[in-house]
Amino acid sequence: MLKSLSTLFAALSLLAAGSVQAVPAQSLSLANAPQTGRATTAPGASNADGMGAGAYVLGAIVAGLMVWGIVELASGDDDPDSP
């Protein structure tokens, strides 16, 4: 009896705590949010400007290493390289 009564009391207290702490949806609305300016760049400017050919060289090196890794994995060479 005591165990079921304490379980009932715990369940009711959890229900009451949830309804007391509930936040109304109107306070979460964006209509009440403060107005802020957008962070933008100047027209024509880009984050990729100034990278030049270095990005292409780096991309080619990475692609080459990926191909080399795939070939090494697929070669099926299970012999040890050292004696």
Provide a quick synopsis of the model:
By secondary structure, this protein is mainly α.
Structure description:
The structure is a single chain. The protein is an all-alpha fold and 83 residues long. It has helices at 2-20, 53-74. The longest helix is centred in the C-terminal third of the chain and has 22 residues, at 53-74. The radius of gyration is 32 Å and the shape is flat. The N and C termini lie far apart (76 Å). The mean pLDDT is 74.
Describe the SSE topology.
Elements: H1 2-20, H2 53-74
Q: Which word captures the global form?
A: flat
Rg, Cα atoms, Å: 32 Å
Strand content: under 5%
Instruction: Please report the distance between the alpha carbons of the first and last residues.
Output: 76 Å
Task: Give the SSE order as H and E letters.
Answer: HH
The stretches of 5 or more residues where confidence is low (pLDDT under 50) are none
Quaternary structure type: single chain
DSSP helical segment count? 2
Largest sheet features:
none
Average predicted confidence as pLDDT: 74
Instruction: Decide which structural class fits the backbone.
Output: mainly alpha
The portion of residues assigned to helices is: 40-55%
| Count of distinct strands | 0
